[in-house]
Amino acid sequence: MNKSQDSVIVMQQTDLDNPQNDITRSRNESMTFRLYFHTFWMDYLLMAIMGALGLGIYYLPPAPNRVFPVYFANGQIVNPEFSYPYQKDIIPIWLAALLAFIIPFIFIMLMQIRLRSFNDTNTAIMGLLFSLISAAVFQVFIKWLIGGLRPHFFAACKPYINAANYGSGTGFDGIMFDRSICTGDKKQINDSLESMPSGHSTAAFAGLIYCSLYLNGKLKIFANYRPQYWKLILFYAPILGAVLIAATLTIDHYHHWYDILAGAIIGTMFAFGSYRFQYASIWDYRFNHIPLPRINAEDGFDYHLDHLKNYLSASKKGGWINDHIYGAPFDATGTLSVIKSSGSAITDIRL
Description:
2 domains; two-stranded antiparallel ribbon; 6% strand; 48% helix; mainly alpha
């Protein structure tokens, strides 16, 4: 058996049914404003609708009328974890959202110094917006419908009650009350009833995890060779940024740890989903830098290694120069060749 076929997946050209023909044609077709608008107008319209929906829900008062205990019979506070002082958040939500967008955006634009690809720029930025907007709407729905008491709830509520009123509420032994006993600012009370999940954490992880996935795809950090250490640091730097943004919420007493964890899970979920929605793979280093086709999308992406000649990676190592790319056991385990033989298509998979 040919040794090169055992150890290396060699790029092959097929003639009449070359699976990259449609991709090449779409890449070479000049992208006019009319073509761009025709292709993506619905995405931008839906992003605008989702953004408006998210903002509308964000400004709605919390849906549930939560009840909570204040004092025990002996006058002790029932839940001191809701009794932290009210103070301004260290990183406002607008700043967290801005950092979650601008940091990945800067890296995307820096990569274009080498890539110089409008297709990749558009794909990466739209994927970033998909991640941020979808995650934000997801979490504000939970905040509005579920919510929870923030660590500074009592400081914002300023309940008009004392130990002598014990037993005058609802529930077992009359110790439960609702927001009707609050005397604080209405806006602050509404906000202090919407603790779960953390919006800061959701935005930070949705944007900065997406940034790490993009850097991995372009720089081939987890690939078929050992890169320099700075690439590993660069991959984890956005993740550290997301953790730091989220962790400040425990210092200014805006969220409990479980609110932050829930936001991080939501943000990470949408970062992974949005990246795979836009690119051919997440972890398969051979394809995770290639934007999925939108023009001529009926043909899909066939995971043929010939595509690597037309989609530039920002890495020059690991076989990207000499056109010899080793296999990887992730999204695509083989290279697909479509060979025309006697009028029928034969699928040939070489591992």
